[in-house]
Amino acid sequence: MSLVCELPNFTHPLTPIGDSFKARHIYIHGSKREERWKLLDVINITSGTHQPVINHHNINSSITINPEDHLRVKDTTIGAGHKTYYFTGPLAQLESALVAYTVDRLKATGFEFVSVPDILPEPVIRACGFQTQGIRSQVKQFLHYFLVFCCYKYVLKCLLVLLTSLKLK
């Protein structure tokens, strides 16, 4: 029970506490869209035929979407998960162009972009409600010795939401 009490709870004061029968709809925006298609994975979406094409050079190497190997989804690297994929050639150029176009459009409408460092001081992580101490911590810790006299504790960030939530607080 003590671990439950450590969870941050910054909910709105009108949020009902208890069973779901106390919940009520205040506003519903629009209507739920009905989807009439089956969800597909990255292999089937990009193949066109909805059947993955095997690399013609080596039948046991990797599943690719086309013989030019512009989308690789298997055996991408040691340590990568089963959902890892990457683009090469024209698909990589198209992705880069789409990202640049989207960023330009967002900047034109007034969006502010935030760059988040990979390493944050421990107080920043704790201010966002993450526990940094204990056996089952949510973040990776390491010590950084500065001029041998001072010792600062830093943690690797897990999510962009950490710094964003601190900025909005």
Automatic annotation (TrEMBL):
GO BP: seryl-tRNA aminoacylation
Domain of life: Eukaryota
Membrane-traversing stretches: 142-163
Keywords attached to this entry: Membrane, Transmembrane, Transmembrane helix
Alphabetical list of InterPro entries matching this protein: aa-tRNA-synth_II/BPL/LPL, Ser-tRNA-ligase_type_1
Any coiled-coil regions, as ranges: none
GO molecular function, one term: ATP binding
PANTHER family associated with the record: SERYL-TRNA SYNTHETASE (PTHR11778)
Protein's name according to its UniProt entry: tRNA-synt_2 domain-containing protein
Organism from which the protein derives: Schistosoma curassoni
Source taxonomy: Eukaryota, Metazoa, Spiralia, Lophotrochozoa, Platyhelminthes
